[in-house]
Design brief:
Layout (H helix, E strand, L loop, with lengths): L1 H17 L21 E4 L6 E6 L3 E3 L1 E4 L2 E4 L4 E5 L4 E9 L5 H13 L5 E10 L5 E9 L5 E6 L4 E9 L5 H21 L1 E2 L1
Antiparallel strand pairs: 1-2, 2-12, 3-6, 4-5, 6-7, 7-11, 8-9, 9-10, 10-11
Amino acid sequence: MYKVGFVFTFLFVVLIMACNSPFVPKVKGYEKVNLPNKQYQLFNDPGYAYTFEYPKYAQIERKLNYFGDNTQTNGWININFPSLNGTIYVSYKDIKPHELDTLVKDAYTFANNHNSMANLIEDSVFTTQNGVHGVFFHIGGNVATNYQFFLTDSAKKFFRGVLYFDSTPNEDSLAPINAFLFKDLEHLVNSFRWK
């Protein structure tokens, strides 16, 4: 009986001494993100049905990779933010007769696909000073994308953008970057013109 007690006591002491790693306090915040200064440049490439201003710290990617195929699509681009680890994925479509309702419904469906993780989905209908109509979606919570929007001339052209980050969704840690890029999305939308 004493031998069994001695063995358990010895193993307990060894186990406690083996866990002798130094104490590291848990960080109570997130790393500070150094945000660049806001400066904009014009995107007005030939062959695209639209023009807008985008940040100088962003890069336009014209050749997109879909399932291993590098193709230059008809009006589709990515606006990459390498220092912020985010991308605005842009799609463009020439509207066929009676197709606008389907494209608008699809945009609402894409936004509502986040219902399971979202704690709010707000949509704002607007018309810019340049006569561009659209809807802006703000999706709250730990979702893959907090901002989506679409723009249209209500007759022939449809432009859709979605902001994604290359990281695990965490509303708290992404809040400063989301707030920063929200201003850039507003500027893009307000400077947007159809050609």
